[in-house]
Every structure is written in C-alpha cells, then in structure tokens.
Amino acid sequence: MTAATTLVTGAAGFLGTHVTRQLVARGESVRVLLRPSSSNRAIADLPLEYVTGDLRDAASLARAMAGIRHVYHVAADYRLWAKNPQDIYDSNVGGTRNLLAAAKQAGVELLIYTSTVATIAVDRHEAGAATASDSTANNLAAGAVGALPNEFTDAKLDEMIGHYKRSKWQAEREALDAAKNGLPVIVAMPTTPVGPWDWKPTPTGKIVVDFLNGKMPGYVETGLNFVGVEDCAAGHLLVAEGGKIGERYLLGAENLTLKALLDTLAHITGLPAPKLKIPHGLALGVAYAETAFSRLLGREPQIPVEGVKIARHMMFVDASRAPRELGFAPSPVADALERAVRWYESNGYVSPGRAKKIAHAA
User: Fold this and answer.
1) Sign of the C-alpha dihedral, residues 216, 222, 228, 233?
2) Domains: count for the chain
3) Nearest CA among 200, 158, 162, 324 for reference residue 252
C-alpha cells in the first residue's frame, strides 16, 4: 500500500464510514484514526492504514498527521446524555482544538471539519419555527425557505440547547478561528443523516429502530432536515473540491416533520404510524422521570431530557447553497429511509415478530 495522504477521524462511525468508503472508491490512499476501544467492522474490508489514538492525545494526533495532505475530521461524541458531560466537551471541543493544532504543525493542505446543522437551527420566533402549527410546518417543509436559517445565520452559544449542541458550537468556532489564522479549513454541516451502516445506532437511527419494533406509541410536534447518509458523505467530497476556505456548507435534503417521517416509514414498511400527538410538556415530564429512574439503575435513559428540549422547535433550514454552488444533488429521503429499514432488518435490529410484519417490495 502506498503511503496514505488523506486522514479520516471518526471512520468507524455512521457518517465517517461512508466518507471513508467514498474516498477509497475514488482511489485515495486513506489513513484512519481509531481509538483502542473502537470496532472497525464497518470498514474492515477496505484497504486502509490504521493509527491508534485519541483526539484527546496530542502525541497520537502528531503520528496520525505524518505525511498527510487532506484531513476529514468527522469524529464527534454524538450523545444527548452522558454520565459525565465534560467527556463530550473534551472530545468535541478539546479534541478538535488538538487536531487543528496537529494539522497546522504538519502543514496539511486542506481540512474538512464536520460540524452540524445544530449550530444554526435555533429557536427563533421570527422564523415561525418555535410556534409552527401543522399547516405552517408543512409550508416550511414544502420549501418556503425565506425565513429559515442557513450557513450565514449567526447563532449564539446561549441559543444552544444541551451539552452536545454547545460543544459542537464551540468546536465549530475553533475551526473557523483556525481558518482565519491561516489553516485551510472548510466546514461541512450535515443535517440529519439516515441510511444503512448505522451500527450504534445514532439518536436518529434509534427513532427508526423504535418505530420498526413498535416502541413508539406517539410523537411530538417537531421537525428536522434529513439527508441520505451516502449523499451527505458525497457532499463532504464536494465541499473539499469546491468549497471556500473559512466558510460553511449545509448538507441537507428535505425538511420533514417527525409525523411526516413516521408516515414515510409506515408507507415503506406497511406498519402503522403512531397517531397520538404527545404534548411537549408531557414528553418532558416523562423524560425527567425516566432519567431519574435510569440514574438509580445506573443506565442511559431511553428518553433523554436534552432530546425532548431540542424537539420543542422545528429545526428546518435552507440548505440550497451546496446544490447551487457545489453541485450537491441529494436523492429523496424516502429512498434513504428504505435503505435504512432494510439494513436494520437484515442486521438484527428488528425483533423477529415485527420483522414478519414488514412489507417487502416485489
């Protein structure tokens, strides 16, 4: 194998797996940074160079950067609950700061930092999102993008809900400051990826899995922008090819309410969609109670309080910049959801009884 020239962090994760696969598919020699505890099962079949290390370990980052020209920093601690919240900041903020310093020291030619839609999709009444009725939500989802946040929205730290969003906002500022100081950094901002190879699964993947297993009796009124994970990964490569240093690019496809997402899953699977709309106040009360009970049992809560708080507003965005400037062309989200359903089913995430009820296209 020739010496690697591209480094990917987070290659064992959901989005990182797809970024790594697409880089290899186009002929790049790729090195991946994996923690000692990480499994490489999602990328084990690829011709990769491995470096064992951690974003919190500066020495391991220096080793990982040797001879590298391009970096895709996809790794993040994506949790809506943590026993010790400082762990999230240590990885997302401190780890990103360490990586940027190592990249500058190594003289890398380009660094793509994977941020998140969460750093701009904030609760602002003037956008009509916080108090959106069903009809308003449908209009926003259908493309009334004039008031929606985009890459040029300047959200503040005090608008971030919870430790994950706050840590990613701070990490993004580290990346943008590094760009101002001469490091060639471009920021990719995935919305909500869905699709196959979500081993963990992610918080969004868990919604799909819970639906498939009949563990979602109702829904709250909320909305997100979704994108197929393969398209999101391809968008990272487009950002590297045509993006402007020091700028941000949203990688999203469709604004959908949670109800619309569940209705789409129902259409794909033939399983019934939940009809009960749960008031946010009730959902929050249940989340607090479940979190307290989980703390007594020493386990992770099934309904994170942070997730319910985030769901109190529509996280719709105007993601038209990447298609307009980079040629980003995401496929329908329904197609990505179908690939996700089939993957979860074939990899044992669905109980046998429920799997028998899932319809399959002829």
Assistant:
1) negative
2) 1
3) 324
Burial of 126 (0-12, 13-18, 19+ CB in 10 A): exposed
Contact 91, 50 (CB under 8 A): no
Retrieve residue 93's tokens. 């903020």
- Residue 65 has φ and ψ, to the nearest 5°, of -85, -10
**Contacts of residue 21, Cβ cutoff 8 Å, sequence gap at least 6:** 43, 46, 233
Q: What percent of the chain has pLDDT over 70?
A: 81
Residue 107 lies in a domain: yes
* Beta-carbon contacts of residue 145 (< 8 Å; ≥ 6 apart): 318, 320
Cα–Cα distance measured from residue 5 to residue 29, given in angstroms and rounded to the nearest whole number: 6
Inter-residue contact 212 to 194 (CB < 8 Å): no
* Helix ranges restricted to H, the chain: 14-25, 58-65, 86-89, 95-106, 134-142, 162-180, 203-212, 229-242, 258-269, 280-297, 305-310, 321-326, 333-346, 352-355
Tokens standing for residue 180: 């101002």
- The answer to whether residue 357 sits within a structural domain is no
pLDDT over threshold 80, residue 141: no
Q: What digits encode the pLDDT tens for the residues 241-272?
A: 999 999 999 999 999 998 999 999 999 999 99
Range of the structural domain that residue 202 is part of: 6-347
* DSSP 8-state symbol, 37: T
Distances in whole angstroms, Cα of residue 335 to Cα of each of 8, 77, 246: 27, 27, 33
Residue with tokens 């011709």, as numbered in its chain: 47
* Domain membership flag for residue 270: yes
Structure tokens, 167? 């840590």
CATH code for the domain in which residue 158 is found: 3.40.50.720
Contact between residue 316 and residue 121 where contact means Cβ atoms under 8 Å apart: yes
pLDDT for 307 equals 55
